[in-house]
Amino acid sequence: VSTELSQGCARGCDLCSEFNGCLRCSPKLFILLERNDIRQIGICLPSCPLGYFGLRNTDMNKCIKCKIENCESCFSRNFCTKCKEGLYLHKGRCYVTCPEGYAAANGTMECSSPAQCEMSEWGPWGPCSKKRKLCGFKKGNEDRTRRILQAPSGDVSLCPATTEVRRCTVQKNQCPEGKRKKKEEQGKQDNGNRNRKDTKDTKSGTKKRKNKQRGATVPTTAASPAQ
Fold this sequence. Notes:
Elements: E1 13-17, E2 21-25, E3 30-36, E4 39-45, E5 52-55, E6 61-65, E7 71-76, E8 79-83, E9 88-90, E10 93-95, E11 103-104, E12 111-112, E13 118-119, E14 139-145, E15 148-150, E16 163-169, H1 176-214
Parallel strand pairs: 3-6
Antiparallel strand pairs: 1-2, 3-4, 5-6, 7-8, 9-10, 11-12, 13-15, 14-16
Subcellular location: Nucleus; Secreted
Domain Spondin-like TSP1: 117-172
Keywords: Disulfide bond, Glycoprotein, Heparin-binding, Nucleus, Repeat, Secreted, Sensory transduction, Signal, Wnt signaling pathway
């Protein structure tokens, strides 16, 4: 290792060596360590290059490499502020396309949040229905709606859903036409039962009369003694 020098260093460098370049930069500058074969060469810069972020310390300001894939500039190791060309930035990460529910607005490469949309309050839940019917089933669906009051750049496709659907359960409830039909069928059945009962009673009365006729006694006259 070569001897450290404080004279003859590059501009902005307070301490350097022949083998490793700058070892300490002036207070306002950042030191960047570049690998050259097996050596690390230190250089002093007023700001960090692409792919690095500046970390200020009382000892020495350093340029730290971004750890996020496809990141061009970052705020910290794990938070990107600009992605490489053609990629979208979303919450400090780089994506080929914006995640589901997000989209790039105003021609930028940053995915905007649906939270930027101004939505109305949810309306009340509608009646429980199934295939547009309100009766004759046990489980169905009910929905509620809300309105988009304001959308970023007028693009409503960036806003969240305006309709919400959930499953619902209703007590056993027959349709009115089903009740009428059942009542008519019950009436027909009752009439049939009454007709059968009347017929049975008629037959029973006839049978009783016949039995009574067969069981009737004929009065006999005693024979008078022969003269």
